[in-house]
Amino acid sequence: MPHKITDDLMSIRNNGKLSINGHELEVSNLNKILWPATNKKGITKRDYLLYLMSIAPVLLPHLRNRPITLVRYPNGLGGQKFFQKHWDHALPEFVETVRYFSTSNDEDQDYLLCNNLATLLWLGQVADLELHTVHSRIITSPDARGLSRKFTGSEKAIESSVLNYPDFIVLDLDPYIYSGKEAKGEEPQLNLRAFKRTCRAAHSLKNILDGLGMRAFIKTTGKTGLHIYIPIVRNVDYDDVRMFAETLGRYLMQEHPTTISMEWATKKRTGKIFFDHNMNARGKTLASIYSPRAVENAVVSTPISWDEIDSIYPTNFTIKNIPERIAKFGDLWADILLSKTDLHAVLSAEPKRSNSSRWI
């Protein structure tokens, strides 16, 4: 079946229908350029759908049962951008949703899930150029069986449900080291000096986590920084996870005050690596691994090994070469949910002094 879908995608001139595991998906404007490129042929919607098709076996497990946020560019990068957690029109019958209480809207609402191949390709069809997920899942097995799956009616219902217990501590290392080419008020552009310093900060952080016995997984953000995910048993809620992440950041900053910042004001973090612990809040999303980003050439947020961190650069990874990388190395995050740390055990253990200062 996968080969047939790929063949069908290649044979459709511009508009047509795909048969996907018993579902039918209408596709249109397959030749529309979604990611323009300055020195090469732009990346079309057809290219994007072929990419999603090729990586679906490794991507879908990381998306499944997690509410998603769409980042849509219907007219391609450079056109108008839409953030969507809901769909205002009739959904295809294969797209699953979960209904839960929205604290910002003070009502129950339906949120989108990406639980199957047809939905993944539908996201490509509607020009969802970035695949963002929350850090928690709607299912309780295997490590959250005592938690509620009642998500509706009130904020209290959400707080006592499995959606309030994340699978990960998420740490975002974002360099505020400028290339010198930015316009006034512009965010720092990707540059080698900044990225190398971010990698050194990541090494320091890993050294701390190793001392705590916590396994960490790393990926490029697809833009300027790095994301570090620490899988944890779902017995700690978002508030406590956020506090733990903040403690890690303040410890790292205490060891390296001239290179690490947790300041919210941009001007106060200039020249440093910004350690952002605030992504550890219920409802926050980050780009999934293997998600392209809304930047030139469709650079992909890519899982990397700790051994290769000093030899890679974010622009090395695009939708053009990720399938080949997966074929060669497999999914480096395949066992992330099998590598969980019990945070309660860490907090009750005898503290250990890290040796992270050797890195920065």
Topology overview:
Blueprint: H1 2-11, E1 16-20, E2 23-27, E3 33-35, E4 43-44, H2 45-63, E5 68-72, E6 82-84, E7 97-102, E8 107-112, H3 117-125, E9 128-133, H4 155-159, E10 168-175, H5 192-211, E11 217-220, E12 226-231, H6 238-255, E13 260-261, H7 266-269, E14 273-276, E15 286-287, E16 303-304, H8 322-329, H9 343-348
Parallel strand pairs: 13-14
Antiparallel strand pairs: 1-2, 3-4, 5-6, 5-9, 7-8, 9-15, 10-12, 10-14, 11-12, 11-16
Helix pairs in contact: 1-2, 2-3
Structure explained in plain terms:
It is a single chain. With 360 residues, this protein is of the alpha+beta class. The chain has a domain at 166-360: DNA primase, PRIM domain, CATH 3.90.920. It has helices at residues 2-11, 45-63, 117-125, 155-159, 192-211, 238-255, 266-269, 322-329, 343-348; strands at 16-20, 23-27, 33-35, 43-44, 68-72, 82-84, 97-102, 107-112, 128-133, 168-175, 217-220, 226-231, 260-261, 273-276, 286-287, 303-304. The strands form 5 sheets. It has a 6-stranded mixed beta sheet, covered by helices on one side. It has a 4-stranded antiparallel beta sheet with strand order 6-5-9-15, with helices on one face. The radius of gyration is 21 Å and the shape is globular.
